[in-house]
Amino acid sequence: MTLVYKISPASLWKEAVMKGVFHGAPIDLADGYIHFSDAQQARETAEKYFTGQSDLVLIAIDDADCGDAMKWEVSRGGALFPHLYGTFTPAQALWVKPLALNADGSHAFPEL
């Protein structure tokens, strides 16, 4: 099992729970896939794209549950990032945790 992580506004996740499917954030829809990070990439992703943003959640899923729709592709600095070419259901989330905001604008991550 390889856990991958999606940072999402809590409101978007609540909507996905109500609808039974997560389609992704606006950037995901524009790029044609849902952006995920592995455990080592998640903090950098939060710093690069979400600094200072509150009311976020961190969603963990097993990449194997996505089958062939999950592709590991070269992105930032030549690293392989998980990209989901499709949607996922809230039931696929192994856990969802609030991503609290520290006083300096960074996020307090749970142990990954």
Task: Write a concise keyword list for the protein shown above.
alpha+beta, 7 strands, four-stranded antiparallel beta sheet, 3 helices, ADP-ribosylation fold, three-stranded antiparallel beta sheet, single chain, 22% helix
Strand content: 25-35%
CATH class: Alpha Beta
User: Which shape, going by the Cα principal axes?
Assistant: globular
CATH topology grouping: ADP-ribosylation fold
Give a count of the beta strands, DSSP E runs of length 2 or more.
Answer: 7
Given helix and strand content, the structural type is alpha+beta
Using only C-alpha atoms, the radius of gyration works out to 13 Å
Largest sheet data? 4 strands, antiparallel
CATH superfamily membership: Protein of unknown function DUF952
Unreliable runs: none
* Continuous helix count: 3
Number of domains: 1
Numbering strands along the chain, what is their spatial order in the largest sheet?
1-3-6-7
Helical coverage, percent range: 10-25%
Mean pLDDT: 94
Distance N to C terminus? 13 Å
Helix and strand element order:
EHHEHEEEEE
CATH architecture: Alpha-Beta Barrel
Secondary structure: elements and pairs:
Blueprint: E1 3-9, H1 10-19, H2 26-31, E2 34-35, H3 42-50, E3 56-62, E4 70-74, E5 80-84, E6 95-101, E7 107-108
Antiparallel strand pairs: 1-3, 2-5, 3-6, 4-5, 6-7
